[in-house]
Design brief:
Length: 320
């Protein structure tokens, strides 16, 4: 990364989350290049508009491209694709790479970084967990409702690499934290995603306020959350990590935040409502595979996985 030029950043997957965080980096002076498909013409004509409680703004003439080859080599790639597109990610990222390019996977689920490392090399791979409420409300328009924090980890948990990742966001209106254990933070995020996205879809595509407002569904969400976080601690131990999830504290935090955010639809619920493939494999199947490999009894996780596999409009992969 040059000391004199703004770091260059390719955003692969510039939907709600990728578009918002890329726009914040561009607002902070980074050289951001967005890979766009369906929104290309709208953004070219009217710019990229962000509505946010942290300040509305528009990138009048952002750098946009229809192909990664048009973007070319950059210092950083932020991959914010859906986990359903993970097989396409290395092909889309490859034209943007140099030997020194770093890749931040801003995606949901478990095992994402390992999949990237197999194709792109482990030393350059980071994971980002976004704790936020963001919608793409129309072509070239992103609505940031609340929150916005990103927790970044490095696949090899390298503190020097984490410092570089945090520095990328200096001056941007995005709260950034780093984690000494990427795996622990992945499981932490799944502690919200699995109960609230999973139950939201299983209950018919409902918003989070209905889940926390109904006593039976609230109790179910708590039971799922506790089960998932227990699997996370078992997985951490099995992989030789010393970090552990503080289950009671995480449960309390997630219910406090979810109670406050109101009628929010997770990205998985939105995908379900709009008939798109669901991120079932990364969010549910991979945690279930790890639980079974550890010999754990996980009835809630198994039930939710089966339900979402049945509801997923995408063709199901063979059962493990």
């Amino acid at each position: 990364m040059s000391d004199t030029a703004a770091p260059s950043v390719a955003v692969i997957g510039a939907g709600g989350g990728g578009g918002y965080y890329g726009a914040r980096l561009a607002q902070a002076g980074r050289d951001v290049r967005f890979l766009l498909r369906r929104d290309y013409d709208a953004v070219r004509a009217r710019g990229l508009r962000v509505t946010s409680p942290d300040g509305d703004f528009t990138l009048d003439r952002p750098t946009i491209a229809r192909t990664p080859e048009e973007i070319g080599p950059v210092d950083w790639v932020i991959c914010a694709l859906k986990a359903t597109a993970i097989d396409d990610a290395p092909r889309l990222i490859a034209p943007c790479l140099t030997p020194d390019t770093r890749v931040l996977a801003l995606m949901n689920g478990l095992g994402i970084e390992e999949r990237f490392a197999d194709r792109l090399g482990a030393g350059r791979i980071f994971g980002g967990m976004a704790y936020t409420a963001i919608y793409r409300t129309g072509p070239g328009h992103i609505h940031h409702l609340d929150l916005g924090r990103i927790v970044i980890g490095h696949l090899r948990n390298d503190p020097d690499e984490l410092a570089l990742a945090k520095a990328l966001w200096d001056g941007a209106k995005v709260p950034i934290e780093t984690t000494a254990s990427l795996l622990m933070t992945r499981w932490d995020k799944l502690g919200w995603n699995i109960p609230f996205a999973g139950l939201g879809v299983a209950a018919g595509g409902v918003t989070t306020d209905r889940l926390v407002g109904d006593p039976g569904l609230r109790a179910a969400a708590r039971a799922v959350m506790e089960e998932v976080l227990a699997v996370g601690n078992a997985d951490l131990a099995a992989r030789g990590e010393t970090a552990r999830l503080d289950v009671p504290a995480i449960v309390e935090r997630y219910f406090r935040v979810t109670d406050a955010v109101g009628a929010y639809r997770s990205s998985t619920v939105i995908d379900f409502a709009e008939g798109r493939p669901l991120e079932v494999d990364a969010i549910l199947c991979e945690p279930l595979r790890r639980a079974r490999a550890l010999g754990l009894d996980v009835p809630y996780l198994a039930l939710l996985t089966a339900l979402l596999r049945a509801l997923d409009p995408a063709p199901a992969s063979p059962e493990e």
